[in-house]
Specification:
Blueprint (H helix, E strand, L loop, with lengths): L2 E4 L6 H8 L3 E4 L5 H7 L5 E4 L7 H6 L5 E4 L9 H6 L3 E3 L6 H16 L2 H9 L17 E5 L3 H12 L3 E5 L13 E3 L2 H7 L2 E4 L13 H5 L6 E4 L8 H9 L5 E4 L18 E3 L8 H21 L7
Parallel strand pairs: 1-2, 1-3, 3-4, 4-5, 6-7, 6-9, 7-8, 9-10, 10-11, 11-12
Helix pairs in contact: 1-11, 5-7
Length: 311
């Protein structure tokens, strides 16, 4: 009987799916890397979210490991080179948390545009600073989306419904342009200079360099804001802090960081900046979907030798 380890917090629905498919499953969370390395040889499969780092050292210790399942889309925490070298399949669940992430992007944007966090803090203190907070409306604003995968598409749909003007920078978009007549396909430099709002929904570049650094920040509108719910290394954090401190742009909201967990970060305390701890996909609905999806995919592999959504 195959044996699977779930090493990150996940809905118990995954356990039920595995058991119904005659697969033994253990759930042990908050393992230190050394602890995971010590026990991984006992398992045929490993299920992770974003907390567990499936490093080369851990993967190499998985003598019986055949598959790593990511309950979510991003696989930055899995050493894909090592997995391939050790003939281990890596699966993810694209689309499972699409709506949750898109809605969180909208929530961050609305909070920035209407000064929600500052207004909330002041009101709790009895300050009643009604004249201090003059926000902006989304209607008619130019939204630039970098990347046009599942989340980018969903965020574009929401933005169009709110009567925003949507432009996209995506290498794959031109082949699908006819399906999205309300969306403009523009260059990255034009998106940076023309957008009121820039929202990231892409993977890191192949060279792993930030897409936005000080040069790009200087070319943005002075009232522009940046939203990032995609990957932490897409924006140079030091340069973003400088841009916010010097009022080069209006504001930013980030759910992801260059290093996670972000117990320390240069951005902490920066003005006009909203930070959340990588919770864009953390809705009850999304977690049920990805838990069931990854468990079903891995069960199909173990029971029928089917490979679904391999990375």
């Amino acid at each position: 009987m195959p044996k699977v380890l779930i090493s990150d917090a996940l809905s118990t629905l995954a356990n039920e799916v595995f058991k119904n498919n005659n697969i033994e499953v253990d759930t042990i969370t908050d393992l230190k890397p050394s602890e995971l390395k010590e026990i991984i040889h006992k398992y045929d499969g490993l299920v992770v979210r974003s907390a567990t780092k499936a490093t080369d050292e851990i993967i190499a210790s998985g003598n019986n490991l055949k598959i790593i399942g990511r309950a979510g889309a991003g696989v930055d925490n899995i050493d894909l080179v090592s997995a391939k070298k050790n003939n281990i399949i890596v699966m993810n669940t694209p689309g499972g948390n699409t709506n949750a992430t898109a809605e969180h992007s909208l929530s961050l944007l609305m909070a920035l545009y209407r000064n929600i966090t500052e207004a909330n803090s002041g009101t709790h203190k009895g300050l009643w600073e009604k004249k201090k907070f003059k926000g902006l409306e989304l209607k008619g604003k130019n939204l630039g989306i970098i990347g046009f995968g599942n989340v980018g598409k969903r965020f574009a749909e929401i933005a169009i419904a709110l009567q925003m003007n949507v432009s996209v920078y995506s290498e794959s978009f031109s082949s699908r342009k006819n399906d999205y007549p309300n969306i403009n396909n523009i260059s990255l430099s034009d998106l940076i200079s023309q957008s009121d709002i820039i929202s990231f929904h892409c993977k890191p570049p192949k060279d792993d360099k930030p897409i936005i650094s000080i040069n790009e920040l200087n070319n943005m509108k002075s009232n522009a804001v940046i939203i990032n719910t995609a990957r932490g290394n897409l924006i140079n954090e030091k340069d973003l802090k400088e841009a916010l401190d010097k009022n080069i742009i209006r504001g930013a909201a980030l759910d992801v960081f260059s290093e996670e967990p972000a117990n320390e970060n240069i951005l902490f305390g920066t003005k006009n900046l909203i930070l959340t701890p990588h919770i864009a996909a953390s809705t009850e609905e999304a977690q049920l979907v990805v838990a069931e999806q990854i468990a079903l995919q891995m069960s199909r592999f173990f029971n029928n030798n089917e490979i679904v959504n391999s990375v």
